[in-house]
Amino acid sequence: MLHSTTLNCPCSTKAMSYGSFVSLSPTLHQVCSSGFATDEWVTLLKRSTFGYVPNDWRNRAGSQFQLLSDFCRVANKTIDDSVDRFLKKFFIASTVFNEIDFDTQLNVTIRQFYNSTIFDFSLQNNVVRLFLQVDQPYMGPFNDENNYLHSNLIIADIENERDNQSLSQVSFVLLKISEINSTVFTCICATDPRCQGLSAIYGTDYIREMMVEQWNASWPYKNFYKSCAPIYCTYSEKIRTKTIAEIIITLMSVISGLVVSLRLITPYLVQFFFYLWAKISKRQQSQQQDEQIHGNWCDRFKMTMRNVIKLLHSTVINLNIFSLSDIGSTLDPIKAKRLGQWATRLYIALFIGGLSILTVYNLIQPQMMTKTFNKPPFNVYKNLKKLYGDELKCPCSVIATVYSQFIEIEPTFHKICSSPFASEQWRINITAGLAANLSIYERRDYRRFLSAHLQFLQGLCKLSMNSVYNSINQFRTSLLVTSELLSETNFHQKLESLMEQSKSNAPTTFRHLLFLIRTINHGNAFISTYGTNFEYIVPEDASMGSYLPTRALIYDDKCSCGLCSNCTTQANFITSNSSEIIPIPIKGLKIGCTPSESFRPSTLECFYNQSCINLIHEYTNYSYSHEPLSIMNSSFLINTTMAELIGRLFIERWSIKPNYTSYFQQCLPSYCSYTSVQKLNLISIITLLLSLQGGLTIILKWTCPKIIRIVSKIYDYRKKRMNTIHPGCALEETSDDISNTPADNVTTNLEISSMPETSPTITGRSGRRTSKVFFGCILLTSVIAALIIFSFYIVRQASSINMTNDTNVNPTTNTTMSTFSSTATPICKSEFRSISMNTSYFDLIRNGFVSADFNNDNRLDLVIYSGLHRTVNLLFGNGDGNFGAVNIIPREGFKMLSHINARDFNNDNRSDLVLANSTHLGILLGNGNGNFGALNIQSLGAKCTPNEITVADFNHDKYSDIAVVSMKNNSMCVFLGTGNGTFSSPLIFPTGHNSQPRSLNVGDFNNDGHLDIAVTNENAVNVGVFIGCGNGTFEVQKQSFTFIGSDPTNLAVGDFDSDTHPDIVTSNDNENIICILSGYSNGIFDVRQKFFIKSVSTTPSVAVGDFNCDGHLDIAIGTTGPYGIDVLLGYGDGHFDTQTIFSTEVFETDIMIVVHDFNGDTYQDIIAIDVGFNTIDILLNICECCTREILKKSNSSLQ
Predict the structure, then answer these.
(1) Tens-digit pLDDT profile for residues 78-103
(2) How many CA atoms lie within 13 A of 300 on its CB side?
(3) How far is Cα 772 from Cα 764, in angstroms, rounded to an integer?
(4) What is the pTM of this model?
(5) What does CATH list as the number for 844-939?
(6) Which CATH class is domain 942-1092?
(7) Where along the chain do its domains lie?
(8) Which one-letter DSSP state was computed for residue 1043?
C-alpha cells in the first residue's frame, strides 16, 4: 500500500496456467443427481407403456426422462471439459498485478468463461433443434414398434389403370399432438414449433443455463502471487533534484569562489585603473612624448605585448599569495617567501589544469532531465505527444479496462433478416391458407416445403445474429491490459487486429457447427417425414409383419439422396387438370432431399421480385401484399446463395467506432514524463565555474604549501647527504671574509647559503629545466585524467542507451480469445533477393521437388518432377542461387509420381532419391556424379496411399527410414530401412476415424532421445503425435485440439519460446490463419497464438528458419490470394513481428515453400513453388544482420 502506484515486481514465471490459482467446481441442479435421471428409472418407465391409448403419457414418459438423463450427462461432460480446457490455458503476466486489478481481470475472464460455455452449448442445442424442426426426421411409432397404426405412416392401395391391379404405397403423415387443453390432434409439429402436449417436461430456463446452479469459482490472490514468484520488486518516488545540504554546499562554493576571485582581481583592477590614469595625464603634459608613442601602430603593439609579457613573467615569478603562517611560522622569512612563490606557481598550474579538466568533464557529461506533467488533460497530452513523440511515457492509473468503454461495434445484417419474410407472423399468416396436413400436396409441390424453409430462414437469422452479438459482447467485455498509455496509432492497430480476429471467429464456429450437424444427419440416413429423401417400398409378396426396405429418391443430374445430401431440383407449385400436371417454377428456390439441405443452394431472388411474391401469395391463399426487398446499399447480389449468406452470418458490413479520447479517460494517466539531455545555459556555466573555482581554491590553498614544504624538506635532506659525501665541493670562507662583508649584503649571503652554491648560469638553467619538467608532468597528468574521464563518459552513455531500451513499458492486450503482446526491443528485419525460374514446360506438382547435393560439389542441386512430360529432372546448382544444366533421371516405368524426397539410404555419403506414387515407393541410389543406379520398387500396401512422406532414422540403426501419412486411409505408415535401399513391410498406425491427416513432421517431442512423428488431422481439427519407442514402433497417437476453423494442413517444428521443448506451427488451406502450438515435452500441445495474415486468402505452407541471424527461430508463411511469402520474426520468447518479404499480384491458390542455403553463405534461403503458374522463386537471404563467417559445408549439411 505504501507504493501501490509505482511498485513493480517482475514475475519469474510469466505464463501461468489458470489452474495454478483458480478453482472451479460447478454444481448442477439436484434433479441431475436424483433417481429421476438414472437408467433404472428410465427402464421402469419404458416398461409401463399403455399401447392401446396413444395419448397416454406413460407411452412417452420413458423417452422424456431418457432425454432429461442424457441432457444432464451431456451438460456435466461439457462443463467438465470446458473447465479442464480453461484451467489449462495460460494467464500472461509480466509483473505482479495488485489485488484490485487482479480481481477485476479475473472477474471479467471468469464471467466470459461462463457466458461462452453456456452460449456455445446453447448454440449447439438450438442448431440441433432447428434442424429437427425443419427436417422432421421420422421417429417411428409412438409406442409399440409392431403397431404401425399410430406410427405416422399410411399404407394405401393404388389401382393401376392399365392392368387394374392395386399396388401398396407407404406415405408419411406429419406428426400431430394434442394441445394441452384439447383431447384431439390439433397441433402439427412441422408447422408449429411451439406445440406442447398434455404431459411433458418443459424447463427451458434450466436447459439454457446447462442445469448449473452455481459455478463456485475462487481465485486467491496469494496463489497467484506464488505462481508469479517475483524475484525482486522495485518502486519509484519523487524526490527533489538537490537536497538542502547540496543547496547549502553549492551556495558556499559559489560564495567562496566569488570572494576568492574578487580578492585576487580587485587589487590588480585598481592598479590598472591608476596606471591608465597616469598614462592619460602624461599624454596631456608632453606633446613630444605623445608623438614618440604614437608612432607606428605595429611597433606600439609589439612594445605593449613585450611589456605585458615582462609584467606577467615578473608577476608570476614574484607572486606569492601565501602568508608566512601558510608556509610555516618556524621558517626563515626569506626561505618562507621563496617557498611561498613556488607554492603559488604550483597553485596556479594545478588550479588551471584542475579547473579545465573538471569544466570539460561537467560540460560533456550528459545531464538527464525528466519533465513530469501531473494528471494532464487530453488536449495537453496531444500537444505533449506532438512535441515529444514516442519519448513521452504516461503510466495508466487504471491498467485494465473493458473494451466497451471506448469502442462501439454494430453489425449490419442482410435486409431479409429484418424483413417481414423472416418474421414468425408472416410465416403463420402465409401458411394459414394451406391444408393442415401438408402431406396431401404432391411430393414435389413447394407448398410442402414453404413452412419449413421459412422456419429455417427465421431460425438461421436469429442464430446468426445471436452468434455475432455474442462474439461482440465477448470482445467488448474483454479487458485491455496495459500499464502504459498506448499511442493513438498503436491503439487503432491493436483494435483493428483484434476485431479482424473477432469478426472471423463467429462465422467460422457457426460454419463448422452446421457442417457437423449436417454430416451426422446424412451419415445416419435419417428419413424425413416430408418423404423427400427416402421412401418405403412394399414388395408384392409382403405380408403383415414384414419389414419394408427403403429406397433413396433421385433428383437432378441423377443425384441420389443416399449418396449426397444436397441433391436438389427446381421448386414449383404443382397444379393439375384432367390431362396433365403443371409445374409453376418459383425463382431462386430449390427443393431436395431435406428442407434444410435444399434451402442452402436456394437464393433470395424471389423476395426481390414483386411478381414472385404475388405468386406465393396466390398459391397460399394469402390476401395481403408485401413490398419486395431492395437491392440498394447491399454488398450481396440478389443471386447469392443461402449457403454463402449463412457462411457470412448474413452480415452486410461492420460499423466500428473506436474512441481514443474515451480510452485516454479510462487509462487516466496519473502523470506523463519526458526524459531528455539537459543543455547548459550561460548562467549554469557561470555557476559551475564559480563553484569549481571556489572548491579548487579552498583545496589547493591548503594543499599546495604543504606539498612545497615536503618537497623542500626532501631537497634539503638530499643536499645534506650530497655535502656529506662530497666535502671537497664546499667553498671555504674565512672569518675575515665574513666580517668584511657589508651589512647590506647579509640578506644575500643568507639567501645564497640556503641554496646550492653553483654558478648563476647553472642555477638558471636548472631552474628552467625544473619548471619545464614540473609543468610537463602537470600537462601529462591533465591529459591522462581527461582521457580517463572521457572513457567513463562514453561507457556511461552506452549503458544509458541500453538501459533506456530495456526499460520500455510493454503494453499487453488480454482477451479470452487470444493474447497479444508487443516487445520493446527492436528486431532486425529480414531481407531477401529473389531469383525467378520459369518452369512452365515442366508442369510442376506440389510435392514433386527436393533439394540436395547430388554430384558432391558442395552446391545444392534441384530435382523436380514434370507432370507434363512425366520425367524426373535434375538441375545442377551453380552455387549462387541459379541452376544450370538439366539431367533427366530415368525411372523405368514408375508412373504418376506424386512425391520426391532425398537422403542417403545406403550410407555411402551420396544423396539418393525416393519416389512415391499412390501404390509404390521407388529408390534411386546416387552415384555421386549426378547419375543414379537401377530403380528399386517396393509396394506401399493397401493402407499407405501417401499424402506426404518424410525420411529419418526411427530405430537408431543409422539407416534412413521412411514415414508416410495417408489421408485416404486415416493412417501413418513407417518403412524401416535395411541400409541397402530396401525397406521392411509397413508398420501402420491409425490417426483416428475420418481424421484426414494431411502432413507430417519429425521431432523429439518428449525429450527422450527418440524421434517422434507429428501429423495434422484436418477433419479432426487436431495435431496428433506418435511418441517413438526408439525401435521403429510408436505409441498410440496423442491428440492436441487446435481450434474450430484452424483446419491444420502443413506443419513445421521448432522451439519458438526457448524453453527447450519443440513447438509446432500449422498452416491452413482454407483460411488466412497460422496456429502456433506450445509443447509440454510429453507429446501434448496447447494453442499459444493465432496469427491472422492480413490481405491474403489462405496460408497453405509454413517453414522454419532463422532468417535474421539473431539466434531465434522465425516462421516463413506461403500465402495465396495473392501469392507471396510473409515471415513471423521471432523474439525467442514466443512473440513475433510480421514482415512481408515477397509479394505478387498473382491470385494463385497453392504454394509450397522450403528452407535451404542455395548460395553457400550459411544464411537460410527460401524456395517457393507456384504449382498453378509453374514458376520457382528462390529468395536469397541478404539480411544485413547476418554477419557470420562463411563455413565450408559437407554433403550431409546440404540435404
Answers:
(1) 888 889 888 888 887 778 888 888 88
(2) 8
(3) 12
(4) 0.53
(5) 2.40.128
(6) mainly beta
(7) 1-137+204-237, 407-513+556-658, 844-939, 942-1092
(8) -
